[in-house]
Each structure stands twice: as C-alpha cells, then as structure tokens.
Specification:
Blueprint lengths: L2 E8 L1 H5 L3 H10 L3 E8 L3 H7 L9 H8 L4 E9 L1 H9 L12 H5 L8 E3 L3 H11 L8
Antiparallel strand pairs: 1-3, 1-4, 2-3
Bound molecules: adenosine-3',5'-cyclic-monophosphate.
Family: Belongs to the NDK family.
Keywords: ATP-binding, Cytoplasm, Kinase, Magnesium, Metal-binding, Nucleotide metabolism, Nucleotide-binding, Phosphoprotein, Transferase
Enzyme class: transferase
Amino acid sequence: MATERTFSIIKPDATRRNLTGAVTKMLEDAGLRVVASRRIHMTREQAEGFYAVHKERPFFNDLVSFMISGPVVVQVLEGENAVAKNREVMGATNPANAEEGTIRKTHAESIEANSVHGSDSAENAAIEIAYFFKPEEIVG
Ligand code: CMP
C-alpha cells in the first residue's frame, strides 16, 4: 500500500481540555505523520461548508454550533493506509461504541463532542485537505 494522506480535525471539546498533544501523540503512535497543522477558530460559513454533506441531518445545526464553539486543530496526516489507520485509531463515532485504546474511547465526551474528525475515504480526504490547506502548506 502506497503512502496516503488523510484529513483530521481535533475538535473543540479536545482543545478546550488541552488535549491537542495527547490526541496527536495517539495519531503518531499509530504510525501517522503530521505533515500540516493549523489551529483555527472556524466561522459558521466554513463549518457549514465543511459539513455540507450532512445538511439534511437533524443534528446539522448542533454540529455546526459545536464546531465553532472553540478552536480546532486541522491537520493533514500521512502514512501507509492513512485513511483506514486514522479511522481505526479514532474509534467509532459514538464513544460508547468505540474500542478500548482508541482516541474516542479514551477522550470523547459524546457522539457530538467526539474529539476528532477523520476523512472516511481517500477521495473525501483530498476534498477536505484542499478545503483547509494550500499544497505548499503541506510538508511531507
Ligand atoms: P464527524 O466525523 O466529524 O462527522 C459528522 C459528525 O456529526 C460526527 O463526527 C459526529 O460528531 C456528529 N454527530 C452528531 N450527532 C450525530 C449523530 N446522531 N449521528 C452521527 N453523527 C453525529
């Protein structure tokens, strides 16, 4: 499997609890390399655009409000099989269903305040990376 990139967000519940380093260490320990990283406070428009695929879902407005409730850290992660590896180390969306040792089992507070986002496919990873980063900001 060739080296692949995926997109990650450390969400406001995690930055609020000063867990940026702890979460990043779990990503790195899983074999992922942070090749771009920026701490930002998303605008409502940015969050709505990022989650546009979910706009018909009943949780959309709450999700957007949560994602702009504090700073987030947007990251590009690189490694072998990075999309799947990141999803494995994140654990299930709902921390109640997440495996022991995953980021969400260890740190998440709820299905909404679930500490991290990760791309669900290589195709979406490319779209999500381009939403936040210029090519020259990614240094592998
Ligand atoms: P994320 O990977 O960022 O993608 C969409 C997010 O919606 C998801 O993580 C959850 O944090 C959030 N969310 C909130 N409520 C729900 C729900 N009922 N089902 C699925 N996702 C939800």
